From TrEMBL:
Native organism: Hypholoma sublateritium (strain FD-334 SS-4)
Pfam families listed in its UniProt record: Thymidylate_kin
Gene3D superfamilies reported for this sequence: P-loop containing nucleotide triphosphate hydrolases
Protein name, UniProt field: Thymidylate kinase
MF terms in GO: ATP binding; dTMP kinase activity; nucleoside diphosphate kinase activity
């Protein structure tokens, strides 16, 4: 691999609420640091920014916003850090994100009208604001049944943590994963489904086995763009 075209990978961890993805993301970050691999960690929504604070108030049910406005705020929150992600991987520092555009689409497209249960926002409309964002090299989707998630501590603390909502979100993630494809072809995002209902240590080792070779090997060529041919 030529020195001038090498960069670090961009890795996203997605998942249903209470799937353990945040814990596993933190464990992965710590393990990479322990291995001497300086890594940049981001969590979306980034609640430290002005936009992120508005999102936080909405998620904690302390404010009400139009569903379309909320979706666009989530997307804007990701765009705030798009250039930072690009610069970081170009500087050969791996980037790991806890949630990204895929969760934004899944949660918004899963909303339904209270009267008839029909989708509130079209899937394509939900995806449109994130077209052109930096595309991750690897997405690990932490899959868990809503029943398993409900049994875990803290379930229901935030607005979207309702079982019927999680069922719809899970279906939207499935659709996104199918559209992304296996991603084994060169230049495509690889989407991997992780069974998050297993013991924490088992999941942790699977994540490490998927991520560490990518981090140590590096990536040839620049970051691609989401949903841009």
């Amino acid at each position: 691999m030529s020195n001038s075209t090498w960069r670090a990978p961009f890795i996203v961890i997605e998942g249903l609420d209470r799937s353990g993805k945040t814990t596993q993301t933190a464990n992965l970050y710590s393990r990479l640091q322990d291995e001497g691999i300086q890594t940049s960690l981001h969590k979306f929504p980034d609640r430290t920014t002005a936009i992120g604070q508005m999102i936080n108030a909405y998620l904690c049910s302390t404010s009400e916003l139009d569903d379309r406005a909320v979706h666009l705020l989530f997307s804007a929150n990701r765009w705030e850090l798009a250039s930072t992600i690009e610069k970081t991987v170009s500087a050969r520092t791996p980037v790991i994100c806890d949630r990204y555009a895929f969760s934004g689409i899944a949660f918004s497209a899963a909303k339904v009208h209270s009267g008839n249960g029909q989708p509130l926002l079209p899937f394509e409309w939900c995806r449109a604001p994130d077209v052109g964002l930096p595309a991750p090299d690897l997405v690990l989707f932490f899959d868990i049944t809503p029943e398993q998630a409900k049994a875990r501590g803290g379930y229901g603390d935030e607005r979207y943590e309702k079982e019927e909502m999680q069922v719809r979100v899970r279906e939207m993630y499935r659709r996104i994963g199918e559209e992304m494809g296996a991603g084994d072809a060169p230049g495509k995002t690889k989407w991997v489904v992780i069974d998050a209902g297993r013991e924490r240590e088992v999941v942790q080792e699977e994540v490490w086995n998927l991520v560490s070779p990518l981090v140590k090997r590096g990536i040839e060529g620049p970051l691609r763009r989401l949903w841009v041919e």
